[in-house]
Amino acid sequence: MKARKGVAVRPIVSRCPWREREAHETTKPDILTEAEIQDIAVQISENGYRALPFVETGKQFFSCRDCYAVWLAGSVFERVPADQVSGVYDIAFIWTPAPETEKKE
Ligand SMILES: [Zn+2]
User: Fold this and answer.
1) If exposure means fewest CB atoms within 10 Å of the residue's CB, which of 1, 15, 88, 101 is most exposed?
2) For the sheet containing 60-63, what is the strand order?
3) How far apart (Å, rounded) are the C-alpha atoms in residues 6 and 43?
4) What is the pLDDT of residues 28-38, one digit of tens each?
5) Rounded to the nearest whole angstrom, what is the distance from the C-alpha of residue 91 to the centroid of ligand 1?
6) How far is the CA of 65 from the centre of ligand 1 (A)?
7) What is the domain partition of the chain in residue ranges?
8) How many CB atoms lie within 10 A of CB 82?
């Protein structure tokens, strides 16, 4: 049997660090705009939430279209562990920080 040429059917693999938590239908996360990051920063200072991680050169905040998780990465293809999600920025533009991870000190 010959392999068929043309469009390969690729399984949907989300880049979201929280892809294991619930069903994900999109593969490509959005990139947060400067305005969105500002909005999140305002909500953080108003609510006394944990600050967003420092954005190193070449890094960007990505946002999942399925679960609204937000994480910092160098590219969409970078694999980010689930505990490095900064928080959730939902459809109502409400920021909810991710729970702090226990491991520290
Ligand atoms: Zn997600």
Assistant:
1) 1
2) 30-31, 60-63, 69-73, 85-89, 95-97
3) 48
4) 899 999 999 99
5) 13
6) 7
7) 30-97
8) 15
